[in-house]
Here is the input.
Amino acid sequence: MNTVIFRTIAPLIVATMLVFSIYVCLRGHNEPGGGFIGGLIAASAIAVLGMASSAAQARKALYFDPLSIAGFGVLLAGLTGLVSVFNNSPFMTSIWLYLELGEATVPLSTPLLFDIGVYLVVFGTISSIALGLESNEGEEP
Amino acid sequence: MAAHDLPPAMIETATLPMAWVVVLPLVLALMGAALLLIVRRSHGLSFVLALVSVLAIIACEITLLLHVFESGPVSMTMAKWLPPFGISFTADAFGASFALAAAVVTLVVLIYAEPEHPSAVGGGSFYALVLLLLAGVTGSFLTGDLFNLYVWFEVLLISSFGLMVLGGRAVQLDGTVKYGFLNFLATTIFLLSLGLLYGLLGTLNMADVMRVAPQANPAAMAGVAALMLLAFGMKAAAFPVNAWLPASYHAPPAAISALMAGLLTKVGIYALLRTLVAVLPATRDVLEPVLIIVAIATLVIGPLGAIAETNLRRALGFIVIGGIGAVMAGIALPNLAGVSGAGLYIFHAMLTMTALYLVAGLIERQTGQSDTRYIGGLYATSAPLSVLFLVLVLAAAGVPPTLGFWPKVQLLQGGLQTGGWIGGLLVTALLVNAVLTLIAGTRLWAHMFWRAAPTPAEATPGEPLPIGRLHWLGSGVLFALIIAAGLWPNPMMEVVRSGAADMLDPARYVSAVGLAEVTP
Here is the structure.
């Protein structure tokens, strides 16, 4: 895998995949997509980066520990469920906010935040596994 | 049809603040696990955060239990959808008291395991996995939806898998593979039965299933219930699908195996109690002969295995299996005394089995041995240890005035009320189980504590480890709880009796979910 062609093109692929994963995550509420599939795409991008450079390099590029990202995702998803306590509604009830920005209306909601949480969980878990498989024996995880 | 002709799909009334305590224990456990995953590099912070989360969960569950005891089952259906569409969380006295016992057991194990960190417990993910395990257990006890129960079983399985393999010694991998394979099989069978049930009834909400099950094809329903019996029987380690338990529970460090002995099989047997007695009572009657045979076989084979076993924690594993037989006997005796005996037994087994494994861990630390053939003379070395072990063994066998006595009395009463050859057989099996457990337990005690220490030539000396103050604190707190609950059983008996009444007559449960006035 360690060819010049792959190493040269990898950063481009990784950047494109990451942007695409965010796009897929955000369109997921009404169209095919969502946090789960978005997270998978982003994790694949990290796996490609790990193959092209090294697992240690990919970890450095991530800055945050992948499992901590996953933990933060669960925390975020749980918190969005708890927001409905202020609305006299049961756990996980969705709350919507329609922002008027000039001509356009931007619908913001707790399901969106929940989906971002799912994205982070899937991204963190899968990239942690992928980097674990890619790292060499005895390398500090 | 115009849109306004459709029946309503959303709940219009405001949620009572009290309903939140049904979901809060679970949410706290799940978010606590997430937080602990983030801070897992710092051991001190992890320990404090884990303790705080579990204490908050216990506070919620005490509130929940008091509320349920005063005014009947509480329910909350997620996201404002009306019950059969939304996922309901419903707590009755059984679910709430078991969830509380699970949280208390987790707290004790956290305290006990603290000094073992990080050498024996391995890595920083121990606390996160324990909280995730607690989330799975709490979810299973409090959910009011069969598919959701499956989800919590998966959470439970994954976290227990992780806990069992932490440290990565060869014996742990061996135990984990056996445990994991059989439990994955059981979960798959459970999922199959859920698919069939949904195909038959079109709903998986427990309260809704209670309403519509009588109209379904009885033969097909019996098939579904038989699959559930197999699946939960495997989870609970009932005979003849019990082989995984003694093969795996002795592998991980003592604190982890104590947590598993206290929680895992109890969730399986609770699910069996819930589905067969409360949700599908008609099919339970069809399966009664099978239940009786399984109960008697489990009651007798468990302690017999414990008598034959020489490894300390493996022997305790067989005693755990014998206890599962006692709960099965309660499921086979569906009257108030029988079901409340089964419920009380689950409560007792959570506390006592955990305590037994914790003390077994102390014995292993003291001697550096896990084979009872090479342990001896402990009475002279550590008198408190011998008292702890003996009293816990008596509690497991059901000798008064320990906690184990009261569920046995209830079960025997249930058997005598049923009468006939069914009641007679089960009563005999329960008494035989008590005697055999007593023989197995006191034999272990006599071997390890009473007889003279074996000469160094026959023993392969292990490395004795020091017993820290937190070890004593953890096992002592649990021991004191067991003694106190045995001496003052009344509050607990009343809670369990009200829970058993709700299991046998689900009217209050169904109306708490909000399905009482809907006609099937």
Summary: The CA atoms of residues 84 and 92 of chain A lie 7 Å apart. The mean pLDDT of chain A is 88. The radius of gyration of chain A is 18 Å. Residues 110-134 of chain A form the longest helix (25 residues).
